[in-house]
Design brief:
Blueprint lengths: L8 H10 L11 E5 L13 E6 L7 E6 L7 E3 L10 E3 L9 H18 L1 H5 L11 H9 L57 H54 L1
Bound molecules: flavin-adenine dinucleotide.
GO molecular function, one term: oxidoreductase activity, acting on CH-OH group of donors
Protein name: Glucose-methanol-choline oxidoreductase C-terminal domain-containing protein
Keywords: Membrane, Transmembrane, Transmembrane helix
Amino acid sequence: MPPGSIINQAAWDLFNYNRTGILASSSSRTNVFIRTKFQPVNDSRPDIQVIIGTPNGTSLWTLAYLLQPNSRGRVILASRDPTDAPIVQMNYFSDPASHDVNTLMEGIRRVNQIFSTAPMHNSGFHSFSNLSDDIEFKNYLYGNKSSTANSNSGDHFTGTCKMGIDSMAVVDPRLRVRGIVGLRVIDASIMPFITSGNTQAPVYMIGEKGAQMILDDNNSTGTSAASSLHRSYNFSIVIIFYLVFYISTLIKQH
Ligand SMILES: Cc1cc2nc3c(=O)[nH]c(=O)nc-3n(C[C@H](O)[C@H](O)[C@H](O)COP(=O)(O)OP(=O)(O)OC[C@H]3O[C@@H](n4cnc5c(N)ncnc54)[C@H](O)[C@@H]3O)c2cc1C
C-alpha cells in the first residue's frame, strides 16, 4: 500500500466486513459523456466518453474514448480452413475526412480542461501542457520518433455480423443468419452501429432479446403446427358428420 493511499487497512476492513467502501467500487468511478462540435447538429448522442479512475487511491488516470468512429475495420477469412484464425484489420483513424482523429483530439482537449480547473490544479494534478497544437496531439496519439503511441482500442469490438436488411447485413432483424436455416448470431457482432458507451450491458440486452426471439419463434412454430393439427381435426369431423348425414339419408330413402 503506498503511503497516504486511501486503499489502507480501514478500506480493507470495510470491504472484508461490510463489502462497502472504495474497494467495493470500480476503479473507474467517474464517466463523463461529451457531445463535441464534430457531432452533427441533428445527432444528440455524445461522441466522447471520458473515464477517470484511481488505480491506487493516490493517482488518477484518464482516458478519452471515441464513441462513434467513422473508420471501419474488416474481418477476412484467411483460408477455407475453419480452424485458421481470420485476418482482422482494425483500420483505426482511417476515415478519409480525419473525423476520428479530430474528435478524439477534441476529447483530449476537454480532459486537459478538466485537469486545468482550480480544484484539480490545487490537488496537484496538471494538464498535458506540452500538447499545445494539433501536430503534438497527433504525435501523442500516433507516436513518432521521439514518443510512443498513446492511443489504443477500447476493446469494444462490434458489428462484424451486423443486423439489417441491406446487402452487408449478416443477420436479419430476428438475428437469423440470412440464407441459412436454424442459425442465429446473438452477441456484440450484430450491432449495426456501436453504442455510445461500454458494450457489455448492451450485449446482455441483446442476449435477453435474442433468447426471447428464439422462444417466440419456437412457440409460434408450435402454435402453427398445433393450429394446422386443429384445422385437420375439424376437417375430419366435418367429413365424418357429412358421411353420417349421407348414410342416414340413404337409410331413410330405403
Ligand atoms: C479487455 C476487455 C475489457 C473490457 N472492459 C469492458 C468494460 O469495462 N465494460 C464494458 O461494458 N465492456 C467491456 N469490454 C467489452 C465487453 O467485454 C464485450 O463487448 C462483450 O463481452 C462482448 O460480448 P460477446 O458475447 O459478443 O463476446 P464475448 O464476451 O467475447 O464472448 C464470446 C465467447 O465465445 C467463446 N468462444 C470463442 N470462440 C469459440 C469457439 N470456437 N467455440 C466455442 N466458444 C468460443 C469465448 O470463449 C467467449 O466466451 C471489455 C472487453 C475486453 C476485451
